[in-house]
Specification:
Layout lengths: L1 H21 L6 E2 L1 H8 L3 H13 L3 E4 L2 E4 L4 H10 L2 H16 L3 E7 L2 E8 L14 E3 L4 H8 L3 H10 L13 H10 L6 E4 L6 E9 L5 E10 L2 H29 L2
Antiparallel strand pairs: 1-3, 2-3, 4-5, 4-9, 5-6, 7-8, 8-9
Helix pairs in contact: 1-2, 2-3, 5-9, 7-8
């Protein structure tokens, strides 16, 4: 009986978290019906969860639309506060942005996606650029490819087998064997360049940050829209700078033994 109660509590908790996660950059405000459909729960359940969040100050209601409040950040504070390596990386991310005049983000692998945990904006902000908390499909991002390159053959094949490979552009690789071979061939390079695999015209670069055990923690990444001038600037000027910044962040982290 106790196990059944605990199971009910756990299920309710997970559904409540799903309601919170339903709100994102594309859906900052939603009706009860919107939330119910997105989370696959009944409208009455959605109402109960949203009203509970509202009573705790995590959500607000304007007419029929619900949205999260800034207080929701408190739920993730402990996690982000524990990532002390990001404090060290931030210094070098700012240096890169100041020098190259492009926004730079730090992202981590999060299941089948990558999640942005830090972003420093420049005056040239990319429309639709990834924001803190934003997610992108790992197989088609420079950050995701770097994390995948750290996996051994079995881990990589297992990861590709369970991760959706979707066609986004004419250059997207959807064959798991071809993607496996491509990642395997690029394992020894200290960076990744992704050209128009996630979005037409989008070029992205990334360099890895490691801990004292040479375990990848996250990646510094920069993106811009394709043109001959932009591609040349990003690959020849910005990429070496990004690699140096990531290496410097790694050295600082290793020195402090984080």
């Amino acid at each position: 009986m106790e196990n059944e109660i605990n199971k009910d509590i756990a299920t309710t908790f997970l559904k409540g978290l799903s309601v919170i996660e339903a709100f994102d950059h594309e859906n900052p405000s939603m009706t009860l019906t919107d939330v119910a459909k997105k989370v696959n729960i009944t409208r009455s359940s959605a109402r109960r969860f949203l009203l509970s969040l509202e009573s705790l100050g995590y959500a607000t209601q304007n007419d029929k639309l619900f949205s999260l409040t800034p207080k929701i950040i408190n739920l993730g504070y402990s996690y982000f506060a524990s990532l002390s390596w990001t404090d060290l990386a931030y210094k070098y991310v700012k240096m890169v942005v100041k020098e190259c005049k492009l926004s730079c983000a730090v992202s981590i692998l999060d299941g089948e996606n990558i999640t942005c945990i830090m972003r420093v904006n420049s005056s040239k902000i990319l429309k639709g650029g990834i924001h803190v908390g934003g997610k992108l499909p790992a197989p088609y991002t420079a950050t995701g490819r770097l994390f995948m390159a750290e996996m051994n053959d079995k881990e990589l094949r297992d990861y590709l087998a369970k991760t959706p490979l979707q066609k986004y552009t004419s250059k997207t690789i959807t064959d798991p064997n071809k993607l496996f071979e491509k990642i395997k061939s690029e394992r020894n390079q200290p960076y990744q360049v992704i050209e128009e695999e996630l979005e037409d015209g989008l070029l992205a670069i990334a360099a890895p940050i490691y801990d004292s055990h040479h375990k990848i923690l996250g990646c510094m990444t920069i993106g811009t829209y394709m043109s001959e001038e932009n591609a040349k600037y990003l690959k020849e000027y910005v990429l070496p700078m990004l690699i140096d910044a990531a290496n410097n962040a790694t050295e600082a982290i290793v020195l402090l033994k984080h």
